[in-house]
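Table 4 source record.
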Amino acid sequence: MSITSYPNVMTFADGVGSFPYFLQVSRGLIDGHKRIFKFGHNPEIQDVEETIWDGGGIYTYPSSAVAMTVTSGAGATDNGVQVNVGGLDGDYNEVNETVTLAGSGTATTTQTFLRVNRCFIAGSTAPTDDVTVANGGTTYAQITNGENQTLMTVWTVPAGYTAYLMALDATAFTEQNNKVATLRYITRELNGVFRVKNKFDLFAAAFHQNYTTPEPISEKTDIEFRAVATSSNADLRVAASMDIIYIEN
C-alpha cells in the first residue's frame, strides 16, 4: 500500500479513539509502516568533501555481506560492554545483533552485514573509549566515546520497502571567519551511482526542509549526507538528519 492510502487520523473500531497517523506509525501499530530518524555529526570538515559520520572521510560500503568485528579502543578495560549492531544482511533484509566485548575488548558478530545502519551501547555499562565496527581493516561504524550511539547520516532502504523522506535538517558552524559549508543529500539506487538530490550552502546557519509531498526512495537505495568547506582551515562542525517513514511494498 502507498502512504496515500492512509488518512491523517487513524480511527479504531474498538472504541479506543482516533490518533494521528504518524503517532501510530511511531507506536508500531500500523503493519508494514516504520519510522526512522537518521542523524549524524562530523566535527571537522575542511576543503575535502566528507560524509557526515563519526569516522571521517567518505563512507565506504561493504561489497558483500561480512561478519563485523567490534573493538573498543580501551581494550580489556571494556570487557563486558554490550554493543548492538543493526543493518542489512546479504539480501538487504533488516538484521541486528548484540555482542558482548570479551576480555580483549573485542567481539565478532555471527550475523553477516551488507550494510551497517546504526550501532549503540545495549547494556548498562558504557565503554571508556571509541568503539569501532569493522571488517578487513575498513571501519563501517564508530561509536564515539561518550555518545553511546553512532552519529552517521547514512542509511540504506531495506528490501521490500519504499522509503519516504519527510524532512531533512542540517547545521554548519565554525569559529573561523567567512567559512562556508556546501552540503549534498545524495542517493544511490541498486547498481547505480550516487546522484545529488539536494544541495545547499550554509554560512554559520541551519537549514530545514519539509517535504509536503514526501520523496519516495526505492528499496536497496543508499542514502548519504556529505559536506565540504571553502578552505583547508575552516574547521567546520556539521550535523545533518533525515526523518523517514518506510512502507512495505
